[in-house]
Amino acid sequence: MNPYRHFIGEIVAALQSMQAAGELPEKLDFSAITAEPPRDAAHGDIATNAAMVLSKAAGKKPRDIAEPLLARLKANPDVVDGAVAGPGFLNLKIADGFWRARLGDCLKAGTAYGDSSMGKGAKVNVEYVSANPTGPLHVAHARGAIVGDALSNLLHKAGYDVTKEYYINDAGAQVDKLGQSTYLRYREALGETVESIPEGLYPGEYLKDVGASIAKRDGARWIGKPEADWLPEMRAFAIATLMAEIKADLETLGVHIDVFSSERALVESGAVDSAFGELTRQGLIYQGRLEPPKGQLPDDWEDREQTLFRATQFGDEVDRPLKKSDGSWTYFANDIAYHHDKYRRGFADMIDVWGADHGGYVKRMKAAVSAITAKQGELDVKLCQLVRVMRNGELVRMSKRAGTFVTLRDLLDEVGPDVVRFTMLTRKNDAPFDFDLVKATEQSRDNPVWYVQYGHARTRSVMRQATAAGIAIDGLDSAPLDRLSDVGELALIRMIAQWPRQVEAAAVAHEPHRIAFYLYDLAAAFHSHWNRGREEPGLRFVIEGDSDLTRARLALVQGIGFVIGSGLKVFGVTPVEEMR
């Protein structure tokens, strides 16, 4: 149960009773009513804006709604007190027994606690990574992969039917350059001297292995042949080899993709023609000229009549070309077809996770999705800012193998997938991020990864100690939870009860990093309570001669462990049993 959603229901029921009594108009919109923890815990457990949002429509001052509403809510046995604050906010104090019952919910559910039906099984497509198959994954790809994967897990926990997808950009000029670069490495493997890689091609040493593999397979078959003969072979072999490497790195990172979609297959299937036909049918395609960009003109600017999509009708700043000067499709046209294909596969809700360098592409893509789906589809784009890899504050040098960047494999080999995943989720996706290799493995409260894992390990340690002392730890969901009355214990129970709300709120906002903040706060509260027990023996978890209180406290510890484990599962991180 999300207790805050539960109390929205209780508040609405009380308002409806006021309507029945003639104290409020019959037709009121309750959808904007919220119930959430007040900023200051001294003000109570739940704050609601009900009176404020209904005031205008009801023709009453907020306090004239809040005071009779409070009187009705006080009749609820779970509401022990309340007060009207400021212009009309309502603060409620909820009975301790209500919160203890939520701990009971947690103990029954285990790590499934917080699972929600909010999404009602609606289909959502989350597309992420989608790195060009032209080289190994680097750390910025890793951030997008982790954000997309955690967001997918979060939406699944919130009740959505999620499909994780990777779009392989295996058509166009970039993969042709990959094929040309591979051909140079192939010739090099056969004994030719390659002095330097021409500008515009891929210089990374990772292509030496690819070229050598083709040389081993085909010998000198392609030497002296025209490019039209060898390019398709070089391109296809390199893409297949690099995609295999990318998939292996993602598996090591714990990212499991459901669907890999090929841009080349999409184009060859006629999907771009189909999308173009749909936009034409809607009257959204025309021949025209674009105004030149303001300021200095780009080198490739060409004033010519073009085939344009009326993107401005859907919120974009300018209309967008769909064909190049040679008549071939633009990347944008292919991307429209790809999102059209996703919509046809049943995904009205789409989320794309992109690198920050695609920021200028967001408006046009949203406009295209709106147009091609007749405003039935919706696209959210999460942009991930760049990542700098540091060591003790110093920038880490590039990978020799990759040539220009630090690879995901380098990062995984140094700190492991769990540390990479959690650390990347400690900042919002659109904030720049410095990944410090030393801090990420530091054993201190300043390292969220270690601090949260330490919290989980401590819960497991308590259980092991209880078992060693001959105390049964099975069936703790039937422990006498009313024995939990210390202020620290009750505060921890309230934090546990917030978990379902945290899941739903983070899922609605598409912000998995919120989970990291919550887990850190929960772990901090648990560590603090643990330390109180060192100074006050009466607060320790095992109390000799009082088995009921001991089992109640073990139940609290187990609940904390379940919630931390549940949050780490969303992150794709394995909870540790003990710290080493």
Strand pairing plus helix content: what structural class? alpha/beta
Radius of gyration: 29 Å
- Share in helix: 40-55%
The end-to-end span amounts to 36 Å
So what's the oligomer here?
single chain
Strand order of the largest sheet: 7-6-5-11-12
EC number: 6.1.1.19
Organism: Reyranella humidisoli
Protein name: Arginine--tRNA ligase
GO molecular function: arginine-tRNA ligase activity
Structure, described:
Strand 5 (123-127), helix 5 (139-157) and strand 6 form a beta-alpha-beta unit. This protein has a five-stranded parallel β-sheet with strand order 7-6-5-11-12, with helices on both faces. The protein has a four-stranded antiparallel β-sheet with strand order 1-2-4-3. It has helices spanning 3-20, 50-58, 62-73, 96-109, 139-157, 173-189, 206-218, 227-253, 263-268, 271-281, 331-344, 362-372, 408-415, 417-424, 448-468, 487-509, 513-535, 547-571, and strands at 35-36, 46-48, 79-85, 89-94, 123-127, 161-168, 259-262, 285-288, 306-309, 320-321, 349-355, 378-384, 387-391, 394-395, 433-436. It contains 18 helices and 15 strands. 48% of the residues lie in helices and 12% in strands. The protein is α/β, with parallel strands linked by helices and 580 residues long. It comes from Reyranella humidisoli. Residues 5-94 form the Arginyl tRNA synthetase N-terminal domain. A motif ('HIGH' region) lies at residues 131-141.
